[in-house]
Amino acid sequence: MKKWLSNLVKTYFIAYFPFIVVFTASLYAPSDSDLGWHLKYGEYFYKNHTILRENIYSTMMAGYHWINSSWATDLLIYTTFRRFGFIGLSILGAIVITAIFYFFAKAAKLTFWDKAVLFPLLLYMEKPFFEVSFRGQLLSLLGTGILYFLLSEFEQGKKHKIFLTIPLFFVWSNFHGQFLLGLGLFFLWSGLYLGKNFYIARSSEKKTQLLHDGKILISSFLLGVTATLINPFGIGVLTESLRHFGNPLQKYIVEWIPFERFSIFWWNLIFWDILFLASLYILRLKGLLWHKIHYVIPTLLLLVFSFFVRRYTWSMLLVSLPVVCILVSYLRPKLAEVSGTIACMLLVFVYIWVIIIKAPKDNIMAMSWDRFCYQYVGCSPASAEFLSEKKYQGKMLTFYNWGGWLIWNYPQIKPSIDGRMHLWRDEKGYSAFAEYYPYEQSWKNIDASDYDVVYMTPKKPLYQKLAGLVKEDKWEIAYQDNYAAVFVRKTHLPESTNPEIP
Could you say which of 23, 52, 160, 183 would form a disulfide bridge with 98 (CB–CB 3.0 to 4.6 Å)? Predict the structure, then answer.
């Protein structure tokens, strides 16, 4: 009986403890600066029973018709937040991250040893992405994990499971626009898999079977593409997603630029590249490189892209697991007792660190809008209250990252621009972000503009420019604290305004 119980505990520990560690380590306080407008879009749907298709929340590009490829994510965020608040979003984010690890682990056939070594490493490498907590990009990474799991099942002979990619892409295209990357990986994997197997096939019987496999893959891919069109915006979700590629405005958005050379994140990427190359060397020694080519090439492409656009890094790390696990398995101690003990110690150590150090530091139970503002977004509720009271009539320019926060918390203050708008461009070619950004960076003279009020963080060059204009007696500082300042052109100051700094 004792032996049976011991084996049962051991079995469940091996099966579930790595994912318990992932879940616990993935509990972060929500800190996405776009959270506010996601909530507002979800609220709009519940109140009006229709999807909001035009811009009613910002002053720039008012009325612009936007193809919101994350409309279903907005509903999920709003529903979770309305019922469970910030803690609900934290738990939702941790659940999605755990599911991501589960499907990629199944796809790569990771052993307990592999999980014990790779999971903590991936949690560290993915931290800049995971620590924002739940957002649409996590669902896209989950979609990629499910896709790779279904592809690995196809490779193992469970051919018709691949047709589950059809509902996958239907759901994915309604939750986040990065489904386009999933389609690209599906197409590339299928082409490499069929090409590799057709090249090594010798008998006509095997070639006939490959033709059958090809028909299954091609039909499931084409049906998957068709499924993405079943959404409120039709083919617009494809065109909207394609607009992200090669758009010159991306170079001003953090997630679309490379990591700064020689920064810790850049070195992390170099470290993972070394692991990947070492894995390729071991595959070559074992004569398995060609066998894994349909996993190697997609990873290699994402790896190259990661040096130019950091956003690809988060997908590349997990997509590389079927290759990198070869190196981890190669380093495994030969004695099962030794490798099992080391694996247990690694996971227990990470779990204890999370419970004793990380969890108290993050303190997700104490999350509030004030903390969201001060600690993560760098905004100031007091400054927003000031603006609400004064109700300036002049044209106002507001800080980009505060748009979502204002839309949800202070709807009476319409931001000029927010996080939805970085790639918006109307039929005349006008871009709100292209107008806003040169002012924020002080490349254009704000004093020569038609803006009368500027609501800005002290961290941006525009603040310094306006501080100089205050000394020139052209503008006034109507409000200022450590996080925000309200500058008003002197000719538009209300008579009752006292320019004293609170």
Answer: 23
